[in-house]
Fold each of these.
Amino acid sequence: MIVFYNNKHLHHQGKNELFRGKMVPCFEVADRVERIMAELHRRQFNVVVPPDGIDDQVADVVNSIHDPHYLDFLKSAWTEWVALAPQNYA
């Protein structure tokens, strides 16, 4: 299994997320990535750290495993979510 990782994951520290129709404290925290990466390395997974942005290798893999409609949704989901109500960004 190939795992793609980017150091920008370390900066992901959400405040809230939508869970079962309710806003709750965000489950994803930056230090969780470090624990996951340590376990992947321990299990000797092939971890690929591409340069910033999505290079051709990452794009090819993503496009081969995800439905194009899902990828289109992801491209605009955050912008649309914030447009619904500015407090969604807070």
Amino acid sequence: GFEIDSAAGIYYEGWQIGRVKITPVAQVIFSERTKDQGAYASGGAFADPEDGVASGYQRVLLSPGVEFDWHPYSFYIDVELPVYEHTTGDQLIAPVLVKAVMSYHF
């Protein structure tokens, strides 16, 4: 299916502890996914357009996070908490999502 995600957020310039800059972040994330589309395979490996009502969702997540910047390295972590979820059909959905990103700035 087709999926679109959008996010809006704010951050605080943060604090400095030695060479480490700490930046708190808050986001609101909206996602919408349409029902499955595409070729059908009897083994279920592809989309099932006949039973496509059993897929798709809308959700809104609140996502507090924090970034640690120790140039040239940075580490970001957030927790995405659902405040609204609407799914079509029976689906497995995680009660909370956790994201961690480690990066190196060239």
Amino acid sequence: MTLDNLIQTIRTSEGADWLHINSETSFYNHRIVMKGATVVVDNHKEFASFKSDVQITIGWDLIESEDFKAIWANNNPDSNAKSYWFEVFYNNALVFRTLYVSVDGGRCNIP
């Protein structure tokens, strides 16, 4: 499978094609970051596996910035904006990642 085929598979799929897994209580593909002198372990809060090909998984809600700043992102009734990673895995290997921004206090996600 090529990366283009993988992305097309995801783009043309529907919600029912995925098994959603909430990972609030477990660590899967976690990262370790330093916040000052504190070590923080973090991971995607949401995962899904493609039912027709379980080698394809996606993860989202891994915070990149708690306080995202851009005129278009903060010029809303609620000026709070956060950026998150959306990542695509194939055979548990990270093959694609992009940021998206949650604006207006979480009311809208923008790629």
